[in-house]
Amino acid sequence: MIRVPDIMKGRTGYLVMVDRFCRVGEALPSIEGRKLKDWNDSVPDWQPDKDGVYRNQYFYGGNLKGVASKIDYFDKLGVDLVFLSPISRTTTYHHYDVQDQRIIDPYIGDWDDFCSLAKALHVRNMLLGVDLVFNHMGADSEFFKKALAGDKKYRDWFEWDKTGLPKCWSGFKDMPQCNKLNSSYQEYCCEVVELYARNGADVIRLDLGENLPREFLLKIRAVAKRINPNVVIASEMWRFALEKPNPQIYDQQVDSVMNYPLTDAILRWIRYGNYLHFNACMLNLAKYPLQVNDVLLNYLSTHDTHRERTMLAGEGMIEDPFSGFIWDIDNNWRGVNPFPTYELRKWEYEHDSILKQNVSKVHKLAALMLYLMKGIPVTFYGSEDGMNGYKDPFCRKPKQWNSGNKDMLNFYIALGAVRKNNRDVLSTGESLVFINANVAEIIRRSENGIVVAFLNRSETPQELNAFYPGSKEIFSLEGSTPKILAPYGAYVCRF
Fold it and tell me: How far is it, in rounded angstroms, from Cα 78 to Cα 415?
């Protein structure tokens, strides 16, 4: 049975898209066709260029020094695990079309900056997580260029169809898929893993890790653990791990996975009262190994979804109880179907405002639920400011440090304190959820105590009898008490 390093348990995470988070110093001059936008121009480019292509070459200039400058901010939020989006050299701001992951993009910094960030976090007992991409590369990678030129070594690094054309991930022609079974390619990837582990990375998240074969994952794990036994390997996984033919979390391959099913379950319950879907999710998660459940990466949103605020109050979300995910408005934005990318992005741009009166209330309720569930809550940068937005590019706006919803920020600070002050209970132990269309009861229990929370997602007060002898209130939302849950309110106690 896999043993997850104890250093991971009980953490509170924060996901940074480096280019959009914070910049320290002057941004580099535009290179490689990049367009540097003004930081205060918070609407990223969303229209195609003259060729009808979305090149994603607009940068805001966030860098590693900027992340390091905000360690006090992380501490204020109660965050002790900071995740970075990919930082290797590319021609796009998101850095998922990697060129060579051994080289850090000069816009973002260098290895000295990375090491300095890792050390600064470690001094504060914080962990550093990184995002590595081994499923595909960028079409402008030197490796792929050599493959196109006929170099057999590098041609074998990629997948090709019967006509000799490269297979591309999900239809993105600028992201040719790599041959994950090729030993030479695996050696290169292991070199990347070793480089990051030696320079201070504590958690290695594998982008599209669900697509990586068993033998490959075992090599990655062995390399990382040889350098640091406490390095945590996490895999991006969109559905339940048990639905996959490769049982990564049951077979010594990875320590943790991204918990998108829980994201979907929380948001559907808060928005629609869909408790049946939530219960089905809990039953599936209960089949995971206990240690994995302790370190599941739980989110309300990521760079790959709409913002939670939009999913809770925006237009076009899926209401079907058991079909797809709540954020599945339309996947044709990838450009592989007749629906033009521009038309969908235009629709999202025109509907990007969230005007519903109770959006902050339901947002708070969802965040509180996330922070109380088993696993590690991870906040996507800007959520604590009340940032909204549909899918890329609208979910990836630059963080505005001098504006934002101060009430939401204070709420997230309070949530961080709840996690920190009750870490002895919330890190491990039992977890039970009793839920109906309007009210959820969450019970977290360890040898150190019991935390009980009641949440009301409805517009009407709910009677409650939550008096426990010797219990102490640790959090109240919307003025809720042990007897009455206010509309969109919650009451949390410990004994």
Answer: 8
Separation of alpha carbons 426 and 305, rounded Å = 27
Q: Are 146 and 184 in contact (CB under 8 A)?
A: no
CA distances from residue 260 to 299, 302, 396, 439 in whole angstroms, order as listed: 7, 10, 18, 22
Q: What is the mean pLDDT of residues 361-388?
A: 97
- Report d(CA 189, CA 184) in Å as an integer: 9
pLDDT tens for 253-290 read 899 999 999 999 999 999 999 999 999 999 999 988 88
> How many other C-beta atoms are found inside a 10 Å radius of the C-beta of residue 5?
17
Distant-in-sequence contacts of 438-447, Cβ < 8 A, 24+ apart: 438/273, 438/462, 439/485, 440/269, 440/275, 440/278, 440/369, 442/369, 442/372, 442/373, 444/372, 444/374
pTM of model > 0.85 = yes
CATH architecture entry for 429-495: Sandwich (2.60)
Helix (H) or strand (E) segment spanning residue 83: strand 81-84
The residue whose two tokens read 């304190």 is 417
CATH 2.60.40.1180 residue ranges for the chain:
429-495
* Cβ-based neighbour number of residue 342 at 10 Å: 16
Angle among Cα 188, 189, 192 to the nearest 5 degrees reads: 95
Closest of 334, 411, 324, 337 to residue 367, by C-alpha: 411
How do beta strands 127-133 and 100-104 pair? unpaired
CATH class belonging to 6-135+180-421: alpha beta
Backbone angles phi, psi at 146, to 5 degrees: -65, -35
- Please answer whether residues 256 and 295 qualify as being in contact, where contact means their C-beta atoms are separated by less than 8 angstroms: yes
- Give the angle subtended at the CA of 266 by the CAs of 14 and 7, to the nearest 5°: 35
Residue 200 token pair: 């201070």
- Per-residue DSSP letter, 249: G
Secondary structure (3-state) at 108: coil
CA distance 241 to 49: 39
Rounded Cα distance between 211 and 448, Å, is 39
Q: Which amino acid is at 72?
A: D
CA distance 258 to 205: 9
Report the mean per-residue pLDDT for the chain.
91
- CATH 3.20.20.80 location in the chain: 6-135+180-421
> What value, to the nearest 5°, has the Cα angle with vertex 276 and ends 270 and 280?
105
- Alpha-carbon span 217 to 221, nearest angstrom: 6
